[in-house]
Each structure stands twice: as structure tokens, then as C-alpha cells.
Design brief:
- The structure is a homodimer of 510-residue chains.
- Chain A contains 19 helices and 21 strands.
- The first copy, chain A, is an alpha/beta fold.
- The interface between A and B is large, with 130 and 130 residues.
């Protein structure tokens, strides 16, 4: 099973690093453990019936998008002004044209990802106005921060995707930001990425830049960019979002359809009700992509949160949304759609114990629920409002460990070590035995940030905490960063497009 | 479904606190989510066959305990000096007399726990020589520390058990420690607890003290104390442990049978092999309890760890043991025995991000694998060598959240909020709606330590990290502690027994 043989000292360590690197540096993970299905058939049917009832009786408003309303009317929904109601089963029928699995292509084909099925893709966090680090505290994000986070993601083998609006580059006018953001992903990363959704035109610009990079025909036939669109929960789809959603679908690109339900505020305070609402809202958004272009790829999203009874503040990384995510995963699989789940959430304002307790619970829920595309895998602090450089590195480390977690256990004669017991026998250690020497290089995930040394050695090395080590590591990574090469002609084409576009608009800051 | 009605302001908040307290203050948890079964039938059969082969071909040594050897000989095992080999199926047959579920009684009957089935019991960490806090750093544990941790556990609704050797009280002679430890559990806690196992006589003293507290006949018929015994992995059972194991079984008390497998050292470096070894070692220990006294309660234990490829140090809270635990849970259920799993493990030397990343992954594995008795639920840092006051409080908070996690989701008309959507309608918030008012008090778990406030409010309150808040909380809890009352006659009986015992021995410090 294993071709590695014992080598000594430095050579072994080098081989080991190369090997671990190869193990991590996959374009995406194919899970080897099942999903964690916690609800039974009867419960799932009741939730589906509740969602159907919400859709048929309460309905969903589609604001500022007459074309969306027109799609619904022609599809046979009951339209009353902006309010659309759906007969039970109607959306499920429409959703049958959506692919259960698709490839999002990267400019480096080795990094293309397969989204859906048993595949798992880790993507950085998305959307914070602020950034933080231990040296400078909290401040508004800039394009430099934005570019830094792309570099940190690109230089880690623990991610599979470059993400989208990793932080808001608030030093660039709002109406021009998307051009610089998409360019940064194209330039500094050779992994797949996401485009803008803040206006239909910005979505179209993002896609147009992909046409320059990948070729017009290729883009029409293949997914090369994702757009993450949010429901205005409860039960409202805003025109900005549906127009962007339709722009992506029209171009055969994948919209990611995500409710935003803080239980007790944008949805019921009870988990089952929030799940039913989430199902209703997401099915409607996903179905709209199919009315725009049947067969367009689309990702079924999930975003649940709880709130603090003491303060009324939103809470993240708590048990109820973790449990809710696992049920939403089951519901999504019954629709045969790829699933997005939110990853690493916390309300902590520091990369501390709270941050990783909440973050790990939240991230493991995404793993267990069967999410195919995990947005927000790394970086969030401050209730999604800040991207933290240190937290990004800590979360990247967790993402690394989840590669091994999702690999599960291989059960064969080598892994069962059937001959090792006879060799070693009772009371002896396995350190140097042939089986250990043949397998140790690939046996265990190795953290980049955890300190496993004995206390005295840790103390002698400066008694650092994990956040301090993360602080050193992101600086080292940025200093060492080398961008993947990009064809000069393509780069010029993109730069010209951006310059031209920017010239047509006055700066807008809102 | 829910009898709570809207109340205003202070009254509502008081009711809410009482209610959450009641929700947490259960004697134990009965899980409402399934176990996470990641291995298929074929894989389980292969692991069982590998364990059978280890038992039949390599065998297990039983050192310094002729009675154990004698038990095996009479049971039909193949005995060759100290080495015992077992025909496939023999141990499974012996284990059929062990109960699948039993009650461990507490001196306060309301706190008795049911161990086995769908029940989950959280118990503090066990066995550290050192203690730590943010003020004084690391030092050897004392009886004062020991008593402090009992107080902290007893005053938290998030635990169900008082634990055992929470830390080593190194200021008490080794041969007398057990008396003061058991007394402290009896005096400062009214929950179930664990006794000594470091010598047969000390096990018997622990049980004898229970006879004073609970009555001799009661103890003969009911489990009131647990003893945690370790395999001397690989494949050696030491006489100290088997004599203690037999002392507990003989008295109809429950031994907890636990291997100690650091992959690559005390077992194979590959997960499947370590799991097979664990199964073999634990089955043998559990079966020995049944040879001593058929029908005695016994708990099937699990302890896996990985090691760092860089340093050779043991690592904890890593993905491989988490995955391994889930498979061991499946194997244990096929034996129909109650399961112990290790809880919250980390190698971090501080209550930092690393500590809770590793701790949360490790603790969730215990939850998912179906463990009925989770030892080490709270307190460990430093690779199990130190009990940290702050980490204890952070872990207690995680234990609280896991009550809600294990409750899963209730799916009924109230929880589905079927009428709330009609009431609220698209685009409106759920803050004040009737359904929210009727349900918010019980909707979400509320952390004692997490800061969910907006950044500015957190900053104004001193920009604390979670460890600092935990530091304040443990001091507050100790200051406010009130011991549960203990009958004076019983107390005197116990004190007399201890004094008498101590008089018969010279102090021994090893």
C-alpha cells in the first residue's frame, strides 16, 4: 500500500514535508466519511411540508425586478403585485434542471474544483468591512488588505478557492471596487474565485473579465465564477440580488443562494421554523436561476444564527445553528443540489479561546452537514464584521486538519498493522518497527501552529500563545509570497478593460 | 407545547434564567441526535477480525496478578506463563453478562446518573500532576487545588459527575491521598464520583468509604463509585490495575477499562491498527471484570492519540483520534456495553486559541461517538499534564452548549412556527411576534463566557479575552461556593475511618 521506506534524518524529513504537502495540496477534498444525518424521514417531511405551506400561503416578495416577476408568472406561480405564491411541488419541479454537481474552472486547470456530490471546497471568509491584526487592532479594510488575504490563501495548501469579497477594500470607490477585486483574484491566485453581486452591472463586469481570461465560448459553456446572493430574510428577494442572480445564471455561471436568518429577528426563534423558512427562501432563489437559464449551475446555501438572550445580539458558533445546518444538508440532498454552508463563525473580537471554540463548532457543522462549498472557512472575528490576519492563519490550520478528518479511516491489511503486533509483541514500543517506519510519514496531520512541545521547551522558546505564532506566520508568508505567473497579453486585456470601465463612471462612495 | 407566556422586563429575565438553569441542571443528558457512525459493516468486521487475531496469536500479558491468570485459565484461555491468548469469540461470550446500562447513585438521589444507552454524563478531567492559572502559572497540584476543582464542578450545572483524581494533591503522601480525595468528593459534591485505583488496597478503601456513606447492603447491590483503570499498552495488563479492576468488580462497582494508545509508540502509527488494538485490550479488561463477578457493571473505554511528525511529541485534539473514536463507539455498541470516551484534550500550555480548537474537536468526537461517560470533559492543558482553572471554566461553557447540541431539534407545530409566518409576513421582523415571545426563553443556549457584544461595547468594557473572563469567573465561583449539606453522623464515620487508616501507615511519597 505504501511505497515509502525508512530513510534517515534530514532526507526523511524533507520527504515527509513534500509528502504532507502533496496530501494537502489537492484541488479539493472528496470526503471518505458519510454526512451526519441527524433528522429522520418523518421530521424531514414535516419540515418540507412547513416550507411548502410558507411558499403557498405566505409567499415571497420579489422587489424591483419585473423580469423576475414575469418569470414566475410564466412558470405558473400566483403573482399578486410583488408577492409570489407557489403551489406545493412547483419549485421542486423547476429545480430538476439544475445540475447536482459541476466543475468551477480555475485558470490553472490543476486547481479546478468539482462542486457537489462528495466533494468539499474550502473558501476564505467574505464581506467584512473591517480588518484586524494584533499589531494595529481594528480598522477599515483596504485593497492592500484584500490583496494580502488573497496571497495568504493562495500560499496555503489548506484552501481550494480564492474566495470573493474577502474584505471590503474601502479605499476604492464602491462602484469600482469589484473591478480591482476580481483583478486581484485573477492576478494573485490561480484558484477559482467569486465575483461581485452588488449590482447587476457589476456582476456582468465580473463575468466579462472572466471572458477575457478564459475566452468567451469557454465561459458560455463552463462555470468559471460564482456569485453569492443573499435573501433579504424573511421572505423577501431584493431586486439587486435577483438581477445579479439572473446575470450569473444567464451567463451559465453559478449563483450561490443564501438566506440570512438570525433566529428571532429575520426568522422564527425556534430552529425547526428557521430551517423551514431557509428551505423555502433558498428553493425560490435556486428555481429563479433555472427560469433564467435552465441547466445553469446553482448552489443551495445555508446561513442560520442564534441570538443572545441577555443582549439580543446575534451569536455565532453556537449549538443550535450547528444542528440546524445538518438538517439543511439533508434537505438539500433531497433536492439533489450542491450545498454551501457557512464555515468558521464567532463573535469574539480576538483570536482567542472563544474564537476557536465557536469557530471549530461552526466549521465542523459545515463538514458534517455535507457542504460542498464552505464559504467563510477562515478569517472571521467580530460577528462577521472583521477579517483577522491571525484568525485567518489559525483557521487555515483547522482547514488543514479537516483534510485528514474527511479522509476518515482506510481499513486494509497495512492500516490494520496485522503483522506489526507479532513483530512488536506485548509491552514493547512501536517507534522503530518496520510498520511504523513504512507509514509514519503519512500517518498524521501535522499542525503548522499548534505547540506540542513539552512545557519546558515551550517556555524556553518564549511561552507564546497560538495567536502570537499566527502573527509571525502571516508576516512570513506575505514576505515570501510569489504570485503565479499570468500571461502578459491577458493581463493587458484585463487592465485595459478595467481602465475603460473606470473612465465611464464618476467615483461613488455609497 | 410551551407554557411560557410573554412577561415584561425583569420578571421575564428572572424566569428565563431559572428556566435555562433548569434546562441545564439535569442529572445527565439523554441524547436526541443519533451517533455519528462513519464506518460500514465490512470495515467493522475487518477491525473485529484483526482484534481477534491479535488476541489469538499475539495475546496479552497479565503481570503480577496470579488470580487474573487463574481466572483466564478456568475460563478456557490459553495461558503460557504471563501470556494469555484467547480463541476468537471467547471474550464476546464472557461479556454477555455485563449490563448494557446501569445507574451510578449519588448521595443526592436527584443527581444519580444513568450510564449507557442514549445517556451522556460529563465528568471533569483526571490525573494531572500540575495545575495552572493565569496569575500563578504552572505548579504542582495540592489538596486545595483538588478541592477547588470539585467546588467549581459542583457549582456548575454543566457537569453531571464530580470526577476522580481531578489533579494530584501532591502535598499529601501518595499512600494516603486517596482517602482525602474520596472524602473531598463526598463532602463538597453531591454528585457521583470516582475512587482510587493506584493499589488494590486503595481501591478497597475507596469502596469502604462508600459503604459508610451509602450503607453496606446498598453498595453490594448498586453502583456508587467508578474506578478508572488503564491498560499498559501495548497488550500488557499490569497487576496494580487488574487487582484494582477486580476489587471494583468484586464489590459490584464499575471499572472503567481504558487503553492508552499513542499511535506510533504504544500502538501502530495507523489508525485502523490502533483501533483494533484498543478493541482487543479493552475487551480483555472488561471480560476480566465478569470473571471476577458476573454481572458487575463495567465501562468500555477509549483513548487514542497521535504524535507530531516534527518532534515525536504526543499530540491531542487532532483529527485522526477524533475519527478513531467514532469507530470505537460503533464497535462498543456491537458489544452492548456503556462507552467512555476521552473529552477535551489539547497540548497547548495556555487557555488560548489552540487549546479550544483542539479541545472542541476532541470533545465533539466524544459527543458524536456516542460516549456515555465522558471523562476529561474539562480542565486539561499541557498534554494532560496540567489542570487549568481558566480552561476548566471555558470547557464548562462548552459542556453547557453541548446540552443544547445533544437535544437536537424538536419538530412539531410550535417549533415549526407554522402560524408565525402568517403573522409576520415578508420583510418584517420576528422580534416581538407572539411566537417569539412564547419561545425565546428556551430557544438558545446562552454562554457564560463568550462576548457577543458589538466591538465598541466590548472595547469600552476593557477588551478582555475569554481566558481573562474565565479567570474572573472561577474566582467568583469559589468565593460564592456553598457545600451541599452532609449528615454529621456520616461525616464523623468517614473522618474516623480516614484517621484510623492513616494511623496504620507511615507516609510514603512514591
Amino acid at each position: 500500500m505504501n511505497e515509502h521506506r525508512a530513510r534517515s534524518g534530514r532526507q526523511a524529513r524533507q520527504a515527509e514535508r513534500a509528502n504532507k504537502g502533496a496530501k494537502l495540496g489537492r484541488p479539493y477534498i472528496t470526503r471518505n466519511i458519510p454526512t451526519y444525518d441527524i433528522a429522520g424521514e418523518e421530521g424531514l417531511l414535516r419540515i418540507e411540508a412547513a416550507a411548502d405551506r410558507i411558499l403557498a400561503e405566505t409567499g415571497i416578495e420579489f422587489r424591483d425586478d419585473p423580469i423576475a416577476i414575469d418569470h414566475w408568472r410564466r412558470a405558473g406561480a400566483s403573482v399578486d403585485g410583488l408577492l409570489v405564491r407557489f403551489e406545493p411541488g412547483m419549485l421542486r419541479e423547476i429545480l430538476k434542471t439544475a445540475p447536482s454537481e459541476f466543475t468551477q474552472h480555475a485558470r490553472n486547470p490543476a486547481n479546478s474544483v468539482r462542486i457537489g456530490g462528495k466533494n468539499v471546497v474550502f473558501s476564505p471568509a467574505y464581506g467584512s468591512p473591517f480588518v484586524m491584526d494584533l499589531d494595529r487592532g481594528r480598522r477599515f479594510g483596504t485593497i492592500e488588505d484584500f490583496r494580502n488575504f488573497i496571497k495568504l490563501a493562495q500560499s496555503s495548501p489548506n484552501f481550494h478557492h480564492s474566495g470573493g469579497t474577502i474584505c471590503e477594500p474601502t479605499d476604492i470607490p464602491v462602484n469600482k471596487r469589484h473591478l480591482d477585486m476580481v483583478m486581484a483574484h485573477m492576478e494573485l491566485s490561480d484558484r477559482p474565485f467569486m465575483g461581485s453581486v452588488t449590482a447587476e452591472e457589476r456582476s456582468e463586469d465580473s463575468i466579462e473579465m472572466c471572458r477575457i481570461l478564459f475566452g468567451r465560448d469557454f465561459v458560455d459553456q463552463n462555470c468559471v465564477i460564482l456569485g453569492n446572493v443573499n435573501v433579504n430574510s424573511p421572505l423577501v428577494w431584493d431586486g439587486t440580488m435577483t438581477r445579479s442572480l439572473r446575470a450569473y445564471a444567464r451567463a451559465n455561471q453559478a449563483a450561490v443562494i443564501v438566506p440570512f436568518i438570525l433566529g428571532g429577528a429575520m426568522g422564527p426563534v425556534t430552529n425547526a421554523g428557521a430551517i423551514a423558512q431557509s428551505l423555502a427562501e433558498t428553493m425560490a432563489g435556486c428555481a429563479l436561476t433555472q427560469l433564467e437559464r435552465p441547466g445553469a449551475p446553482v448552489i443551495f446555501g445555508n446561513f442560520l444564527s442564534s441570538m443572545s438572550l441577555r443582549s439580543g445580539s446575534p451569536t455565532f458558533g453556537t449549538p443550535e445553528p450547528a444542528i440546524g445546518s445538518m438538517i439543511i444538508g439533508q434537505l438539500c440532498r433531497r433536492l439533489n443540489l450542491p450545498l454551501r454552508c457557512s464555515g468558521n463563525f464567532t463573535t469574539s473580537k480576538l483570536p482567542d479561546a472563544q474564537a476557536m471554540m465557536e469557530g471549530t463548532m461552526s466549521m465542523l457543522a459545515a463538514i458534517h452537514c455535507g457542504a460542498n462549498f464552505i464559504l467563510h472557512s477562515a478569517g472571521f472575528l467580530d460577528g462577521l464584521l472583521s477579517m483577522s490576519y491571525e484568525k485567518f492563519m489559525l483557521d487555515a490550520d483547522l482547514c488543514g486538519s479537516l483534510h485528514s478528518y474527511l479522509d476518515g479511516v482506510v481499513i486494509d491489511d497495512n492500516q490494520l498493522a496485522v503483522d506489526a503486533f507479532a513483530e512488536v509483541g506485548p509491552g514493547n514500543h512501536f517507534f522503530g518497527c518496520a510498520h511504523t517506519m513504512a507509514n509514519y510519514e503519512t500517518a498524521f496531520w501535522d499542525s503548522e501552529l499548534s505547540d506540542n512541545e513539552p512545557f519546558e521547551k515551550w517556555e524556553a522558546a518564549g511561552s507564546t500563545d497560538a495567536a502570537t505564532r499566527a502573527n509571525s506566520l502571516w508576516k512570513k508568508r506575505l514576505a515570501e509570497f510569489q504570485a503565479p505567473s499570468l500571461d502578459a497579453g491577458l493581463r493587458d486585456g484585463l487592465t485595459d478593460f478595467i481602465a475603460e470601465k473606470k473612465q465611464t463612471m464618476e467615483d461613488a462612495w455609497y
